[in-house]
């Protein structure tokens, strides 16, 4: 045991001098240390109190080797206090990380042991707490102290490449020492203890092409001018060894796959110097007639090839492009081939790289040249027309069978070929190719005929050619000109002499080659007219000009002016049109004010039917307004037949002669003799009273014998009354009696229906008026309009 402790002290002195202060004491790892400590209670149970005592033991840390493989528990160290006199009165306790499970302590001696093997990479240290207590009373003799047990590292982990295997790339033809990549190995051992984590790199496989830095792990190229076209992929094996690479160290390896990336260090090369191609003469322009290829050992964009035709013989007939997928040169036909003209073409093609690397210009020119020979093959061809298209002119109404032109087609392999027409208006000679009319042509119906002429090979009818022929039908002067439109012309009554009142133009169905040309004039040139004349402006228009002023509609409303129109054809045709001129009223600036209905409305685009519809609508509106006003008036004045309060009798007239004075015996004429019934402000009951009507003032007649005079006055008054109804009626006038204290009680004398009166005096007239007083008393209280008629 003493040897083991001495070995531990020696190792601690070598590697951790700064943490070995506790190892200064007696053998057996007893580390008493005098230091002022906390207060402790008396041991023998004396007076209880706190006093300052000296701590008898202090320690910092212990060490235990990892991966211990012995059969007995591994001894860690010993705890001891100066209070322990060896009489077994002191008990040592242990708590903290692993206390009781990993670490155990002898309570009497204070020896600490590790019960199982420890791994520093799992847990590098353990923190525990120790205390010395009285074995009998379990009372602490010293304050609890904390210490650390460190797991001493051994070289039990090899370096590992956590990210391997690796992949890297470096350009081909790189110089020696070109950086490739850096690898790093990780060792789980303690880098602060010995050389267990000190890693050294070396290359096991991959020399002499690459090298590795033993300290940093940087991989670089070791050979110059490594060619990708010779070898592209290299596999390098790197080793990382701990203990500084010494014997006994642990090692780990990884693989690195290094690829040489391509650079443009190879020019394109043709596989042969001469390419032979055969092309039929019938090949279409723009079609591919052959393919050639220059091979480039590079890849990607470094292998892209551009092809060009070297100027020279045959180069103008062909063109060449590059196929982007396989880098082939495609030869295209630029112009038609003709075996009878030329049977062979020879030219040179140059192939070069599109992307050059200036570092390799000293390798030589990065291009190659090859010769291309093309032989034209003869094929059976269709006939060929002398022109790509034909145009012919013919006048309309040309007699049938007239030759208007000819087309020619030739078989280059033989001779002339027959032709045929595809239009019914024309006919063609199949041998000579002359085209003639088959029908009469009318320019106004079809101004241009587009026909096709087909030429057929004699010995091979399948081979045909077609050409377009355009036939223009020329116009002849067969239609006279006429006015462009029916003009509606008017002249103001205030028009002055020489004033242009209308501008006219003409139209013609013919189409002269030089364009339309018209002239205008009056029918009798040189004869002076009185009212109007035609003035030709020389631009296919003319003006109607007044020769006098002072036009009056009352004198003459309409004038007719003939106009002679001539065209400008070879055979001049003319026609006479008539202008209708109306005389209208105008304002000072010449604007139309009044004229006939047609002259007013037609310029704005209204037809006769529209004018009639407008007038009918106006009449209907007027009738509706008149009916509405009549109905309102009829409702305003109620007639005697519809009035509920009308109590008079109707008089029916039979147109019979009456009996004279004998008729008076049928009536009580005495009722007409009461003069008191006549009062002022009397209103008619057969007509609804209106505001503003003046009340009549009848003349009172108190002479009872003069009844006829009284009736005559009344009759005259009715005949002069403008508010009387339109039918005959009988008005009765009667006296209501004399000597009555209440005078007349008739409602006829009630001028104002809304007048409020006090009827309390009726109660003073006696029992006979009691009922009447009650009725009018209720009316006064309710403020309602009640009319009582007492007869």
Automatic annotation (TrEMBL):
SMART domains: CA. GO terms for molecular function: beta-catenin binding; cadherin binding; calcium ion binding. Residues 26-47 are annotated as: Disordered. Cadherins are calcium-dependent cell adhesion proteins. It is a single-pass type I membrane protein. It comes from the Eukaryota. Keywords: Calcium, Cell adhesion, Cell junction, Cell membrane, Glycoprotein, Membrane, Metal-binding, Repeat, Signal, Transmembrane, Transmembrane helix. Residues 1-20 form the signal peptide. The keyword Calcium applies. Its main location: other. It is found in: Cell junction, Adherens junction; Cell membrane. InterPro entries: Cadherin, Cadherin-like_dom, Cadherin-like_sf, Cadherin_CS, Cadherin_Y-type_LIR, Catenin-bd_sf. The chain crosses the membrane at residues 600-631. One of its GO terms (biological process) is calcium-dependent cell-cell adhesion via plasma membrane cell adhesion molecules. Residues 81-161, 162-270, 271-385, 386-483, 483-601 form the Cadherin domain. This is Cadherin-12. GO terms for cellular component: adherens junction; catenin complex.
């Amino acid at each position: 045991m003493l040897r083991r402790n001495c070995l531990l002290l020696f190792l601690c002195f070598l590697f951790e001098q700064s943490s070995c202060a506790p190892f200064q004491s007696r053998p057996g790892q007893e580390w008493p240390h005098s230091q002022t400590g906390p207060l402790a209670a008396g041991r023998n149970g004396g007076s209880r109190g706190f006093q300052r005592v000296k701590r008898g033991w202090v320690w910092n840390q212990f060490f235990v080797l990892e991966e211990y493989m012995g059969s007995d528990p591994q001894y860690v160290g010993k705890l001891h206090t100066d209070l322990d006199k060896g009489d077994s009165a002191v008990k040592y306790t242990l708590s903290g990380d692993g206390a009781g499970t990993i670490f155990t302590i002898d309570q009497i001696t204070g020896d600490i042991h590790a019960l199982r093997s420890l791994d520093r990479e799992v847990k590098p240290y353990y923190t525990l707490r120790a205390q010395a207590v009285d074995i009998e009373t379990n009372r602490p003799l010293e304050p609890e102290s904390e210490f650390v047990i460190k797991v001493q590292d051994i070289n039990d982990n090899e370096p590992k490449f956590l990210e391997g295997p690796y992949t890297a790339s470096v350009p081909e033809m790189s110089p020696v020492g070109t950086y490739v990549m850096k690898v790093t190995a990780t060792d789980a051992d303690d880098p602060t203890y010995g050389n267990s984590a000190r890693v050294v790199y070396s290359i096991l496989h991959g020399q002499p092409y690459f090298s590795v830095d033993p300290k940093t792990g940087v991989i670089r190229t070791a050979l110059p001018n490594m060619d990708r076209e010779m070898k592209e992929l290299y596999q390098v094996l790197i080793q990382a060894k701990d203990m500084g690479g010494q014997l006994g160290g642990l090692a780990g390896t990884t693989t690195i796959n290094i690829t040489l990336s391509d650079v443009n260090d190879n020019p394109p090369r043709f596989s042969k110097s001469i390419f032979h191609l055969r092309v039929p003469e019938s090949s279409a322009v723009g079609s591919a007639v052959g393919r050639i290829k220059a091979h480039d050992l590079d890849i990607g964009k470094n292998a892209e090839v551009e092809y060009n035709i070297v100027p020279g013989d045959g180069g103008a007939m062909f063109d060449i492009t590059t196929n982007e997928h396989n880098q082939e040169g495609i030869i295209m036909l630029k112009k038609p081939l003709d075996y009878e003209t030329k049977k062979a073409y020879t030219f040179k093609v140059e192939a070069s790289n599109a992307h050059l690397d200036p570092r390799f210009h000293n390798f030589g020119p990065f291009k190659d040249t090859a010769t291309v020979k093309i032989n034209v093959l003869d094929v059976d061809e269709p006939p060929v027309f002398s022109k790509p298209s034909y145009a012919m002119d013919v006048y309309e109404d040309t007699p049938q069978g007239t030759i208007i032109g000819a087309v020619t087609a030739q078989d280059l392999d033989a001779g002339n070929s027959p032709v045929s027409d595809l239009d019914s208006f024309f006919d063609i000679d199949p041998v000579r190719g002359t085209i003639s009319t088959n029908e009469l042509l009318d320019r106004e119906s079809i101004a241009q005929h587009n026909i096709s002429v087909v030429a057929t090979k004699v010995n091979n009818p399948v081979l045909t050619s077609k050409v377009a022929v355009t036939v223009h039908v020329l116009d002849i002067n067969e239609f006279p000109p006429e006015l462009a439109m029916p003009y509606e012309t008017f002249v103001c009554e205030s028009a002055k002499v020489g004033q242009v009142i209308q501008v006219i133009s003409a139209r013609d169905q013919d189409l002269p080659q030089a364009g339309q040309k018209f002239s205008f004039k009056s029918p009798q040139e040189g004869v002076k007219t009185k009212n109007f004349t035609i003035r030709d402006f020389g631009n296919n228009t003319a003006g109607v000009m007044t020769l006098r002023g002072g036009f009056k509609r009352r004198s003459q409303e309409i004038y007719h002016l003939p106009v002679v129109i001539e065209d400008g054809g070879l055979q001049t045709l003319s026609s006479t049109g008539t202008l209708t001129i109306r005389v209208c009223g105008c304002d000072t600036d010449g604007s139309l004010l009044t004229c006939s209905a047609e002259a007013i409305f037609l310029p704005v685009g209204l037809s006769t039917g529209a004018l009639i519809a407008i007038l009918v609508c106006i009449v209907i509106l007027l009738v509706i307004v008149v009916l509405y006003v009549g109905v309102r008036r009829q409702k305003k004045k109620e007639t005697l037949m519809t009035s509920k309060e009308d109590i008079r009798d109707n008089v029916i007239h039979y147109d019979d002669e009456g009996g004279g004075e004998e008729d008076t015996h049928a009536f009580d004429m005495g009722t007409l003799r009461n003069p008191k019934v006549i009062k002022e402000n009397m209103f008619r009951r057969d007509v609804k009273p209106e505001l503003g009507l003046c009340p009549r003032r009848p003349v009172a007649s108190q002479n009872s014998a003069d009844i006829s005079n009284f009736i005559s006055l009344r009759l005259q008054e009715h005949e002069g009354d403008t508010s009387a109804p339109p039918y005959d009626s009988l008005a009765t006038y009667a006296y209501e009696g004399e000597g009555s204290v209440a005078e007349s009680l008739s409602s006829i004398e009630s001028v104002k229906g809304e007048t409020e009166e006090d009827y309390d005096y009726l109660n003073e007239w006696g029992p006979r008026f009691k009922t009447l007083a009650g009725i009018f008393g209720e009316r006064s209280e309710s403020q309602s309009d009640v009319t009582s008629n007492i007869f």
